[in-house]
Structure formats: C-alpha cells, structure tokens
Design a protein that fits this description.
The protein is α/β, with parallel strands linked by helices. The chain has 3 domains: about 55 residues, no CATH class; about 130 residues, 3-Layer(aba) Sandwich (Rossmann fold); about 160 residues, Rossmann fold, CATH 3.40.50. It has 18 helices and 13 strands. Helix 9 packs across helix 10 and helix 17 packs across helix 18. The longest helix is centred in the C-terminal third of the chain and has 25 residues. It is globular and about 60 Å long. About 50% of the residues are buried. It binds 1,4-dihydronicotinamide adenine dinucleotide and 2-oxoglutaric acid. The site of 1,4-dihydronicotinamide adenine dinucleotide (NAI) has 22 residues, from helix 10.
C-alpha cells in the first residue's frame, strides 16, 4: 500500500479499507466522498474501541447488504416506449427495516443511490429510533411529464420493486422528484399487486389515507430546529437573522416557513434555473402557489412578487450576504469557493437540509473559520424520524394531531443535537457536530451488528 497525500486525513488503520472501496467500485465518486467523510472522523473511537477493528465492523458497514437494479419500461402519452433504470440499495438493517427515500432525477445512478443509502444508515441511527438505512430511485426525469405519464412510470417502477418491500422489510419514502402524489401512485400499485392494505410500507402518504401530520414539513422544520439549537449553544437565536435558503422544493419550502415562524428574515431560494433574492423576505404563500400548486419556475415568482424580488438566472445564493445558510437543494452545492464567500460575508451557521450539499473542502473552510456546521445526517434527520412516527400511527391505527406530532419532532431534533454535542465533547472536539454525528451514528449501528453475530 502506498500512502499518498490523499490519505493524509484518514486514520492510518483505515487507509487500506478506503483503497479497497475505490478499487472495487472505481466509478462511484459520491460514495467515496461520503465514506471518506465518515472514516475521517473515526480515529478517536477506534483508539477507545479495539473491538471494532477486531470485528472488522467498518469494513462490513461500508458494504451494502443488498443492491437491486431493475428495468422500468413505460409508455408516454403519445405511445412512445421509454426504458429507465430503477435502483434500491438496502444498506443496513441492523437497527430495523430498511428505510429511506426514492429519488426521481435524470442524474440518478448507482453511485448517487449508494452514497445516499450510506448516509441514511447513520442518520437513521442518530434518530434513536429502530430503522435501518436504504435509498432508491430512478434516472426518470419527471420534468415536463403529464400526471398520467408520472402515474404510469410509478406503476411500472413499483411492479418490480414491490417484491422487495414490506412494512417489516423495506419502507421507502420521497426525495427529489418524489412527493405525496408519487407516493400515492406507488402505494396504489403496491396494494393492487399484493392485495394488502399495508399502510406502513411507504411513508409520506396523504393525510386522508394513512399519512402523518408534519411529515411534509418535517425535514425543513427539523433542519431549522437543529440550526436554532446550534445557535443556542453559542448564546444566539434565529430571531432577526438573515437566512439564505437554496432549493424551492419540499425541504426548502418548510425550512423557510419554520425560519420565518422563529423570526428570521429569509432572503433567498433557488431552482435549477437560478435563484431569487427577495429584500422583503420570501413570500411563502406565493412560493407555494408557484412551486407546489403550479409546479412552475422561480422566475415566475419574481415576476409576480414585484420590485422587492430579483431573479438571477444561473449563479448561486451563496453570493448573497447572510447570517445563516440552509442548503436544501442537492449534493455538492456549496464548494470551497462558495464557502469562502459565505465566510467573507460573515456567515455564522450552516445547517444541511439537503444530503451532502457541502463539499469536503468547503466543510474545512467553514470549520476552520469557526462557523457552526450541522451535517445533514443530523440536521435533516427530522424527515425520516417523522416517517417513523407515521409508521407508528399506521401500526396502532391511531392518528395523531399536528401539534402533538410537531412536539415529538422538536424533541427528537433536540435529542439529536444533544447526542452529537455530547459525543463531540466526549471525544475532545467540543462543538464539532461532524465528528459527533459520525461517531454517535456509527457506534449505535456497530453495537447492534456486534450483538447480532457475524452480519
Ligand atoms: N424530502 C425529504 O424528506 C428529505 C430530503 N432530503 C434532501 O433534501 C434535498 C431536497 O429534497 P426535496 O426538497 O425533497 O426535493 P424536491 O424535489 O422537493 O426539491 C428539490 C429542489 O432542489 C432543486 N434541485 C434539484 N437538483 C438540482 C440541481 N442539480 N441543481 C439545482 N437545483 C436542484 C430543485 O429545483 C428543487 O427546488 C435533497 O438533497 C434530498 O436528498 C433530506 C432529508 C429528507
Ligand atoms: O422518510 C424517509 O424514509 C427518508 C427520508 C430521506 O430520504 C432522507 O432522510 O434523506
């Protein structure tokens, strides 16, 4: 083994493990990035827990339990046949049934799904609940497709995937391009194929047929609650802060709502066509009308909002000065250059609503500048945690109210923040939420695996 500068940040005993991952799956850069980020945090726990190395827990944890790749044929409205590819990576079920969302986006490939599934394992462990980790999706592009095309695609996707699912086996939910509408089509097809009303097999369902209050809001709300906890630990709060949000989908919209409820001034949001800066603060009702109801573009928001809002085609929200950044669109959307701009503009906290939105170099820039940094596996865990609350309501057939469910979410986010902070302090890196989240998540999964024999 040749040790190179690329290995400098890895614990020496894990260099071989990391090289082996790259040798086996050389075309998976996102997965390598996610694994490296975890391994870089593990030196202190490996020193204190020699049982982990002896049982080769890290080598086992980086290998998915199962990867499913399948053909998804479907017909568009004009009768043309399309063939997409479907994926489900069932990464780890030591803590409970596989759990994690489905992403429909043309960029989806095995690498994307694998990195997301890997992150999901530790995120789900951090919730303190009994859920394993998985992720799935397809390279299907829903943009511009009619509702009946979306329905036919979902039906074809589920026709293959259903044999791998079950409320005690694997429970998907939404992610990019998959919301309540798509979950409805997927559930309908699952029910037809299995002849079972098995509500707990999918989460993110509609409220009238087994969904949970607050699931739709949970990821965005949870991320803002996590950011508020990080600020509180520094003697600050969100009231009056200038907040930058990227994205304008599910996570972004409900992050904006909760930040505004807590007194923040949300200046920005974005989509793949560009971003909006609104000096009066984002008008949530208008944003929801444009994005959730009309499924339109942000340029329409700026046009209808009047003089307070500017639409900037292309570009990035991170050039706008602000106090708190909530990246809520997609992976690697804050690079080192954007991070330096944020730091130069006086950013005080960055909390990841999206999965892996900050590149490793950018994370280093932020941490070295003393910015409070909430990694996605902790900060955006409110969505999956509320999915578990949905499954709980499905199992008992007892629906909860909005306020009660939101209170449970707030408690879970507070507990996740405390677990990360306490673990960071225990390993002599107080305030380092990355190390805290990685070690706390890994230890919970590892302990379950050790208790279950050679799994
Ligand atoms: N929906 C959920 O419960 C959870 C979602 N997440 C993560 O949050 C992020 C956003 O997901 P959702 O809001 O659910 O999806 P969504 O489909 O509702 O919205 C995605 C947003 O990101 C933007 N976007 C996507 N790809 C982009 C690209 N390549 N360039 C620029 N903008 C892009 C879209 O324009 C849209 O505004 C993803 O990283 C997802 O994995 C994390 C935890 C839970
Ligand atoms: O609610 C879920 O099961 C999964 C949410 C998700 O995909 C995520 O946390 O990234």
């Amino acid at each position: 083994m040749t040790v190179t500068s690329e290995h400098a940040t890895l614990p020496p005993e894990l260099i071989g493990t990391f090289d082996e991952i790259r040798r086996r799956d050389p075309a998976e850069p996102y997965f390598h990035q996610a694994v490296r980020e975890l391994l870089e945090s593990l030196a202190p726990v490996l020193t204190q827990r020699p049982d982990l190395a002896a049982s080769r827990i890290v080598e086992r944890i980086v290998e998915p339990e199962r990867q499913i790749i399948f053909r998804v044929p479907w017909q568009d409205d004009s009768g043309t046949i399309h063939i997409n590819r479907g994926f489900r990576v069932e990464f780890n079920s030591a803590l409970g049934p596989y759990k994690g969302g489905l992403r429909f986006h043309p960029s989806v490939n095995l690498d994307t799904v694998k990195f997301l599934g890997f992150e999901q394992v530790f995120k789900n462990a951090l919730t303190g609940l009994n859920i394993g980790g998985a992720k799935g999706g397809s390279d299907f592009d829903p943009k511009g497709r009619s509702p009946s095309e979306i329905m036919r695609f979902c039906q074809s996707f589920m026709t293959e995937l259903h044999r791998h699912l079950g409320e005690h086996t694997d429970v998907p939910a939404g992610d990019i391009g998959v919301g309540e509408r798509e979950i409805g089509y997927l559930f309908g097809q699952y029910r037809r194929l299995t002849n079972r009303w098995e509500a707990g097999v999918l989460t993110g369902k509609g409220l009238g047929w087994g969904g949970s209050p607050v699931r739709k809001e949970a990821t965005g709300y949870g991320n803002v609650l996590f950011a508020a906890e990080m600020l509180r630990a520094r003697g600050e709060d969100l009231d009056g802060q200038q907040v930058l949000v990227s994205g304008s989908g599910n996570v972004a919209i409900y992050a904006i709502e909760k930040a505004q409820q807590l007194g923040a001034h949300v200046l920005t949001c974005s989509d793949s066509g560009g971003y909006v800066v609104d000096e009066k603060g984002i008008d949530l009702a208008l944003l929801q009308q444009v994005k959730e109801v009309e499924r339109g573009r942000l340029a329409d928001y700026a046009q209808r909002r009047g003089s307070s809002a500017t639409h900037v085609p292309g570009g990035r929200v991170w050039d706008v000065p602000g106090d708190v950044a909530l990246p809520s669109a997609t992976q690697n959307e804050i690079d080192a250059d954007a991070a330096r701009t944020l730091v130069g503009n006086g950013i005080r906290a960055v909390s990841e609503g999206a999965n892996m939105p900050t590149t490793p170099d950018a994370v280093r820039v932020l941490r070295e500048a003393g910015v409070a940094f909430g990694p996605g596996k902790a900060a955006n865990a409110g969505g999956v945690a509320t999915s578990l609350l949905e499954m709980r309501q499905n199992a008992t057939r007892e629906p909860w109210g909005f306020e009660y469910t939101e209170q449970r979410l707030a408690e879970i986010m507070g507990d996740i923040h405390s677990a990360c902070a306490a673990t960071a302090a225990r390993y002599d890196v107080p305030g380092d939420y990355v190390t805290g989240a990685n070690i706390a998540g890994l230890e919970r999964v590892a302990d379950a695996m050790l208790a279950q024999g050679l799994v």
